[in-house]
Amino acid sequence: MQTNFSKTQLSDPNIADANDILRSCVHCGFCNATCPTYDLVSDELDGPRGRIYLIKDMLEQDRLASKTDVHHIDRCLSCLSCMTTCPSGVNYKHLLDHGRRHIEETYSRKFIDQTFRTFLGHVLPNSKLFKYLKFTAIMARPFARILPERLRKPILLVSNRRQKGKVVTPMIYKADGARKYRVILLTGCVQDILEPSINQATIRILNRHGCEVLVHPEEECCGSVNQNLGQQNRAISLIKANVARWSEIDKAARLDGIIVNASGCGSILKDYGFLLRNDQQISKEAGKGSKLACDITEFFKRIGLNETLVPGNLRVAYQSPCSMQHGQKVDRQPIGLLSACGFKVVEPKDRHLCCGSAGTYNILQSEIAEKLKERKIEALSELSPDIVASGNIGCIMQLSQAGGREMQHPIVHTVELLDWATGGPKPKLLDGVTLRVS
Ligand code: SF4
Ligand code: SF4
Known about the structure:
By secondary structure, the chain is α/β, with parallel strands linked by helices. It is built from 24 helices and 9 strands. It has helices spanning 7-10, 13-24, 36-41, 48-60, 67-74, 81-85, 92-106, 111-123, 127-140, 149-159, 191-194, 196-208, 224-228, 232-252, 263-269, 272-275, 283-292, 296-303, 322-325, 332-340, 361-364, 366-381, 393-399, 414-421; strands at 172-173, 181-186, 211-214, 257-260, 293-295, 315-319, 344-346, 387-390, 411-413. Strands 1-3-2-4-5 form a 5-stranded mixed β-sheet. A 4-stranded parallel β-sheet has the order 7-6-8-9, sandwiched between helices.
């Protein structure tokens, strides 16, 4: 694609990067074929190619974002299905981040919209505040029906799965037997409050495989919520704090990995090196942090899993989160591990399409998110599984959310099944569920 940035514009390293990305696009439009919003809306501007043109125009003309830019760019899920499809390797993600930042800096949203986005950007990345939000959502749930859509959605999402159990205590969890590895576990701001069983299963399985696990008392959010909202300054300050802390720990005692079990967080962690590339003070450490970051299933593919088969050849429908399959290119690892443990893994049609969760998307763009959710539930249900497994808390919440079509099968995190199959307890959610033995 031809671009026309001036020399002055190109002296800004961020514009220079955007220019490189734009020039790699040959505007073939192949990406539109796998874009969920283009598929639903059939508008060129609701596909990746159209959004690329909108961002190009905003940056090239150095103009304020318009209502049209914001409308179509806000409707992008950041699912990155387009990046998997693109034959020219266009880094749509980095261009989109730039476009969202530009919108945040130059567009005045309606007061109520801006306030709501600011609220989300403060509460979701803060587990202490999020705990109160969950409590409030549970209290407000009986009245959800009469509340406006904007409030009803988050209340239903947050209050639906009321798992009992304590959040994971920050401490060092010692390896069972001799220590072979030392890792940090990122517990996730929202995940640990909503579904503590996921982190508990992760720590158990890591300890059983000779890993010492550190859960840091001052863990910060990974920055993805703010990054997706275009609130880059806030995202960068969280990212820098994480990088500095991890670097210190790694220097004191070499780390074998920074383990992530929420793929939305994993996707941004692997991008820390890029996001801090122009910060001379910390860019090297950020790159190292990105290299150490790995999804729990990637880690077990590397170190090996002591599988002890689960009884019954259970049929597991695997829902591959976008941030995993497109964002991190971690796709076959979870399936391979589940299969090795004796689960019969099946996959839904259109597996590349997003379930509509996408960070705060299901709250801010609920109409499209709901349609995508219904499609995903239908595709998963067609498989008649005993269990549905996913590697991202966002997808788990989205698919089990009350209101609209609901998933009839229990949905758990992949690591809970792997933990069960290697000597851990059966996931609580499967208690009382009749599992078909096929
Ligand atoms: S597939 Fe790639 S090269 Fe083709 S229009 Fe989309 S982003 Fe551009
Ligand atoms: S990130 Fe997803 S929704 Fe956005 S343009 Fe790409 S495929 Fe479409």
